[in-house]
Amino acid sequence: MGKITQEQRNRYFEKVKEHRKTIEAGLAKEKTLLDLLSKDDSGAAYKRLKLSNDALDLCSWYMLVNTLSVSLLGIKNEDYLLEARKTLVRAIKYIEDTVSGYIDVPYSDYEAKVEEIRDFDVEGRFRLLRKLGFAVQSLEDAFGENSKYSASFIETWGKVATVGKNLVNLKTAVPDMDFSSPVRATVLSHLSLVKQLFQRSADKYREQYELYTHKVQDFRAAILFLQALRRVHIVLSERDEAETLKRKIEIWSTKLETDLKKAEEAKK
Questions:
Q1: H helix and E strand count, the chain
Q2: How many CB atoms lie within 10 A of CB 79?
Q3: Cα–Cα distance for residue pair 187/192, rounded to 1 Å
Q4: How far apart are CA 212 and CA 240, in angstroms?
Q5: pLDDT in tens, 101-121
Q6: Helix (H, G, I), strand (E, B) or coil at 24
Q7: Angle value at C-alpha 166, between 161 and 170, nearest 5 degrees
Q8: Cβ(187)–Cβ(176) under 8 Å?
């Protein structure tokens, strides 16, 4: 890559100037809403969802500045990518604080939290999940395959799967999928995406264990995400899928036990 000229720098900073104003306004807006939340917690769940949605918008502006840097200067803007990453973490945390970050528990354990957002329509929930997934994928792509943050995205995708599942009212999910339901298509699409995300997380944690870390907690996380996926199938009365996953969980658990025994024997 050639040396960056002053003309290129000037063009870049001129274009970034307006985006920085937007980012600063977004940060001020987030602070204002957080201050309001600390003083008045009425409708707190809805305020947190608003905070999450706005944080995802802010994340996109940070990534846009990086895109301009790559386009006009030929280099990534790591500072803005890191700010996007921090903002994304906040966006996920706002949703976790609203509907919980439980991966594999009975719906009754967090049902009260989901009830607090009963007026948040299913289209809005699915839209938020897709927006979150798009932000994570965009940021992962922006950092690149060989980034030192690559491994952290496995955990991030797991959180996306989890909050995506927890946004769903599993008590009404089955009737909502009935052919007569006006929200059938949306609920089916939302749950289909959740299932894909859980399977992806399980596979990625297993891959990380096998190829890179060999850490027991990674394999256990992989099994946990399979168990969570199986619970979703059970709740939806998808017996064949649940039974298939039961066998897969048994196979993975046996593999983990075997690996643990081998590790113990190697220490002797």
A1: 10, 0
A2: 12
A3: 8
A4: 33
A5: 999 999 999 999 999 999 999
A6: helix
A7: 120
A8: yes
What is the per-residue pLDDT across 122-159, written as a single tens digit (0 to 9) for each?
999 999 999 999 999 999 999 998 899 999 999 999 99
Length of the chain: 268
Question: Per the structure block, which two tokens stand in for 170?
Answer: 């599993």
Which phi and psi (to 5°) does residue 52 adopt?
-65, -45
Cβ atoms within 10 Å of 256's Cβ, excluding its own: 17
In the chain, the N- to C-terminal Cα span, in Å, equals: 54
Give the span between the Cα atoms of 63 and 82, in whole angstroms. 9
In one letter, which amino acid is 84? A
pTM, to two decimals = 0.95
Q: Beta-carbon neighbour count of residue 242 at 10 Å?
A: 17
Are residues 30 and 94 in contact, defined by beta-carbon separation less than 8 angstroms? no
Kindly state the tokens that stand for 24: 């600063």
On whether the CB atoms of residues 87 and 58 are closer than 8 A, the answer is: yes
Q: Tokens representing 77?
A: 């803007």
- Across the chain, which distance is largest between two alpha carbons, in Å? 66
